[in-house]
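Posting this for the archive.
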Amino acid sequence: MGSMATFQTIRRKRLRWTTVFMTSPSLLPLFVWMAVPPIITLYFSIEHYTLMSPNRTRFVGFQNYLYFLKEPGFPDAIRNSLIILVSVIGVTTIGGALLAWLFDEDFPGCRIARVLIIAPFFVMPTVSALMWKNLMMHPIYGLMAFPLRAIGIGPD
């Protein structure tokens, strides 16, 4: 019986390493995709960089951070960012939980409602953005065109 348990332990370890070996080719690009932007951000945060002359950079260390800490509007910017962060997370968490609770119940038309609530996830974000942009901002047929035309603003 001891040899069977040992065999299963060896088999589990072999399966674990096989899984790691087989998934590593896809994990490496994902890691690079996730790691490069923060590294570049940290690099630029300790450099003096100007968009008007991108070839003229110099190392400034933590001077950029000290500049922002001394800026009078910095505490307000942090406070506003935290307010937005907490409110968006709160609204989406509470709203998502309420919608999940609602759609978990059976009611007339619940299957159609479930399909309608999940349907936007099947549309590519780019396509969705273009559809909303044209729906709202099209100069002739958009929803914003009618009230703007009513007050005399519109395409010539």
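Residues 9 and 84 are 50 Å apart (CA to CA). Strands lie at 47-48, 58-59.
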